[in-house]
Amino acid sequence: MKYWTAAALGLALVASPAAARTKAPPVVEGQTPQPPVEAGNYPYQLFVPKGYLADRSTPYPLLVFLHGSGERGDDVAKVKVHGPPKIADRDPAFPFVTVSPLLGADQDWDIEKLDALVDHVTSTYRIDPARIYLTGLSRGGHASWRWAIAEPHRFAAMAAIAGRGNPGEACRLMDLPVWAFHGDRDDVVIPEGSFAMVRAIRACAGRKVRLTIYPDLGHNAWDPAYDDPALYAWLLEQKLPAPQNITKDKK
What we know:
Layout: H1 6-12, E1 30-34, E2 44-48, E3 60-66, H2 83-90, E4 97-101, H3 111-124, E5 127-137, H4 139-150, E6 157-161, E7 178-183, H5 192-203, E8 209-214, H6 222-226, H7 229-237
Parallel strand pairs: 3-4, 3-5, 5-6, 6-7, 7-8
Antiparallel strand pairs: 1-2, 2-4
Helix pairs in contact: 1-7
């Protein structure tokens, strides 16, 4: 199954900004576990699409995936049981460089650590800074709302699955393309978590927000959401305004 259209992917392959970068290990296509970028940060799965090495100039969109409570611990392979890293494992041509960090047991997502991880990846690999996307499920969905609110201009789009945010801060997202997903029978994170955020964004004149509610579905809204090619096609359609600087010389 394809998770994008050729036209959408073509839009993603635009000129890349240039910056000096530190020496990094050789790039490996496919999905590989990576150590933390610095002490105290998160280990993560890194997916590099097939074809990345063949074209040394094309920048790629970056997708950041935050897992839920059930995958926390010390086994970085567990982040691949749901969502984009699961899809990347079965589709070598998944069109995003994908970063899927692992949250430790009994921890919650730390935005400062996530920022450091994304900064490392964007300075090391050929990433299009105008096409950085954020998504997460459940606890990762909560964190996606929180991170996007804290830095609404960092991402070209955000998709939150079975999550909740702070409606009092939702006006910060009025210009960010957002897609929320929820099961209507979710009794772990009630659907109002998504409804409230979407209503609040629209009340601030936000016109780039959309909501999908799955009928007769509980907490697991992530399987239908992440298995739908429309989500990835929609992400690839979103782009930040052209950055001021151009980056070259990335692996």
